[in-house]
Amino acid sequence: MQNEQLRQNERLRIAAIDFLNPAPLMWDFEHSPLDAELAKRYSMERMVPSECARQLIVGEADLGLIPIAALAAHPELRVLPGCAIAAKGHIRSLLLVRRADQPIEKIRSVAADTASRATVTYARLLFHKWGNGAVPFVPMKVDLNKMLAAADAAIVIGDPALYARRDREARLARTGEELVYHDMAEEWRAQTGLPYISAVWCVAARGNLPVERITEDCIRSRDHGLAHIDDLAAEWAPRMKLPVEELRDYLGHNLHYTLDEECLEGIRVFYETAAALGVLPKYKLQLT
Known about the structure:
alpha/beta, D-Maltodextrin-Binding Protein, domain 2, 7-stranded mixed sheet
């Protein structure tokens, strides 16, 4: 049985999201001069958001970027203050895609990217507000064409959503099918007046983790990442085969990385709404 006490020389295991959007949060963990120092205390593995939650819950990770929807079912996870992956308006990388000739209130099924937990929950809440709260969600691996062949609409998140947005005109030319691309953060803001929060840093309640030190490392890394948005855009552009300017705008303007009071209020309303509609169990966010 795994020893629950953190040994002095044991590195903490990080479950990190394998998308562009957390890149500013990860700066110090991946760039000099602090990456070598942090590598002595942390080991990192990248994965989809839903897998981050699973690893932290079952004890395969000590620290993770966790979709906020996962917290309601696992109140034993402890949220670190300071950092978030959020948006206060247009985000571009969280999409609900539907056929233009089918109104939202008439949609009969939604194919949901299996990488997502938070976005699917937000979508369920929005469908309630749109008068179609009983619409079923079908989990699928992300492939917009296959998703729309199987359902009336599709939820696509992260890097695949960025690609889907860029491919809009080309897809229309290829298929002749007109689609509507709803930006989920914009839709949430329109309904509530509050930010859309995707994920937060969490630690497991197991063991004797140095929470203050972890929080300090995460906030410092975020601050350094925000100071290097141009460098991150240049680094990721060839990897993603997208223009530097587009990635700079996405990281620097579309995304918000501070768990500030407005974001905390957004999370509170998210949980209250989800509990009232029976989408999630009751949960009250408490920071470490």
